[in-house]
Design brief:
264 residues; mainly alpha
């Protein structure tokens, strides 16, 4: 039997999935200095090094696992991969919320990077269900969800951290992911018909192989280089700002969250 034809509810689910992913990512940034200091006893000017390791581990896992997750979605379907990611996010945020040691925070960020690699699957789902002439608009809306999530997440996380402690935003993020998992389980149809699936090939899932393949397309390489430099500059700010503003100005989590929200 073929999969049900996805419709408006499917796109809403993908939109909300990306929104929740970014809110969850933003929720924990303002309180991360407080939690690292609580677990290690370090001051902000030294905790920032550990914070950088957390962010780097998250990004590294996304780099290595995005092609793998994409290949798995081509083999097993988009829905299974997206739901596995949301279930994994729920567990991951709970692990970090209860973490008694820094190394468990590191494990949590590694898992978050792996499950966060499903962003490519969300894009593939949109491509599956959207006519070519409407894809630009829908991809634009997904980009808007990305931005809205990063605006709302730090502000909410900062206030939760001030009101209930630095672990509260992690539990809030887990609850958001869990609710979306249940919603998707019952509402989201599969977008990739069985006859359109293909076997998993580890050669296609190698990120270095993909980069090597791009040598045949110099214009794409130039574009990738420009995007890399843009994202490199963008990543520096959230990696150090919360620690710097606490150390330099004595800002609490709410003030740090509001400053991140202002930047968006």
């Amino acid at each position: 039997m073929s999969a049900r034809q996805p419709g408006k509810h499917a796109f809403i689910f993908i939109f909300v999935t990306v929104l929740i992913d970014m809110i969850g990512f933003g929720l924990i940034i303002p309180v991360m200095p407080d939690l690292i200091e609580e677990l290690t006893g370090l001051e902000a000017n030294r905790a920032v090094v550990l914070g950088a390791w957390l962010m780097s581990s998250y990004a590294a896992m996304q780099f290595f696992f995005a092609p793998i997750v994409g290949g798995l979605s081509d083999r097993f379907g988009r829905k299974r991969v997206l739901l596995a990611a949301l279930g994994g996010f729920t567990i991951d945020y709970m692990i970090m919320g209860f973490a008694p040691h820094f190394w468990l925070l590191l494990v949590g960020r590694i898992l978050a990077g792996i499950f966060g690699a499903s962003y490519s699957t969300a894009n593939a789902y949109i491509a599956d269900i959207t006519p070519p002439n409407e894809r630009a608009g829908r991809f634009g809306m997904i980009g808007a969800a990305f931005g809205i999530g990063f605006i709302l997440g730090p502000a909410i996380g900062g206030f939760l951290g001030d009101a209930f402690g630095p672990r509260a935003p992690f539990f809030a993020a887990a609850a958001l992911a869990g609710v979306n998992f249940v919603y998707g389980l019952f509402v989201l149809p599969e977008s990739l018909e069985p006859e359109n699936r293909r076997p998993f090939d580890i050669r296609r899932a190698n990120p270095f192989g993909s980069l090597w393949h791009m040598r045949k397309h110099p214009a794409v390489l130039i574009m990738m280089g420009a995007v890399f430099l843009m994202l490199l500059g963008h990543a520096v700010y959230p990696a150090i700002w919360t620690y710097y503003s606490e150390f330099k100005f004595g800002w609490d989590a709410a003030e740090r969250g509001l400053s991140l929200m202002a930047v968006g």
